[in-house]
Amino acid sequence: MKILKMNSLLVLFFFVLICNNYAQDEKTKNDSTYIIELKEFYDGKGVVFGRDVDYDGYPNNTDKRITLTKEDVIEAEKIMDSVATLYYKDDIDGKKEYDLKLRGYYRQYWGFENSFNEKKIAIDLFNFSNLEFKEEYEGDWDKGICFSTSDFFYTNSAALLVNLTKRKIVEGTFYLFKLE
Predict the structure, then answer these.
(1) Predicted model pTM
(2) Candidate from 30-39, 51-60, 84-93 with smallest mean pLDDT
(3) Are the C-beta atoms of 45 and 35 separated by less than 8 Å?
(4) What are φ and ψ of residue 89, in 5° steps?
């Protein structure tokens, strides 16, 4: 009787161990967060968060999280650049200054899809050209959402929501386009 219980416990132990390893493998496959460098748009780095990483600051709880491709991110950067080009249409020097300013910003990319199958990207930008800001946030920017209520944070960061399907910025801190 004791041997039967011991064998049953042993089988149960291996069953739990195998299931646990399988679950970890699936999590690894599903968590597709990756670092991206797009030198044609900026000198810093970007992090594309997989669909399993929570974005607590997203305003619409009905949209589902999705994992973005590199092509999605490039398209969002192009849309952001086209809005800046339109904003600075009569100010070539202003556009050059804007481009130079944004080159030092690191990015976080978060993918979403709404009930109309519209793909959206939330982009958080962090001014790592400011060494004090970089020192404070560099250790965490690629691990999850960074947030602070300080003026220092707000003057060195920006957030945009790009609708890839409609090819436009639908929400954001548009002061990013103004050079103060």
Answers:
(1) 0.75
(2) 51-60
(3) yes
(4) -60, -30
* Residue type for position 147: F
Q: Which SS3 state, helix, strand or coil, does residue 114 take?
A: coil
Mean pLDDT in residue range 138-163: 85
Give me the percent of the chain exceeding a pLDDT of 90. 32
Tokens 């739990």 map to which residue? 16
Whether 109 contacts 121, CB under 8 Å: yes
Provide the residue count of the chain: 180
Nearest to 50 by CA among 36, 64, 34, 37: 34
Q: In the structure encoding, which two tokens stand for residue 46, read together?
A: 């970007």
Do the beta carbons of residue 108 and residue 86 sit within 8 Å? no
